[in-house]
Amino acid sequence: MVQVHVAAIQFAQVFAGVAAVGLLALAIAHVLIAVVAVLSVIGSQQTLGMKVVWFLLIWVMPLVGSVLWFLVGRREQRARWNPAVS
Asked: 66-81 in b/e burial notation, b at 16+ Cβ within 10 A?
């Protein structure tokens, strides 16, 4: 009975370590996505006002704002892009 208890404790410790590493990886990915989104907004062709709106959206809700930027904001930018002008 004691061996089962020790094995359960060891499993819990290993699982906690793996979970901590996974959470750290998610946190780093979360920050990187937000940073890349902000840099993308800064380098975009959006007006200054729209850049501020996107920046505030990413700042207030990093994950949602970043995903919205990549799904909606960049699409709007591509739709307005005219290769004949560039």
From this structure: bebbeeebbeebeeee
Q: For the full predicted model, state whether its pTM sits above 0.85.
A: no
CB 4, CB 12: distance < 8 Å: no
Amino acid at 79: A
Q: How many CB atoms lie within 10 A of CB 41?
A: 23
Contact 50, 80 (CB under 8 A): no
pLDDT value, residue 2: 57
Q: What is the Cα Rg of the chain in Å?
A: 22
- Please tell me the distance from the alpha carbon of residue 62 to that of residue 53, in angstroms, as a whole number: 13
Structural tokens at position 43: 């380098």
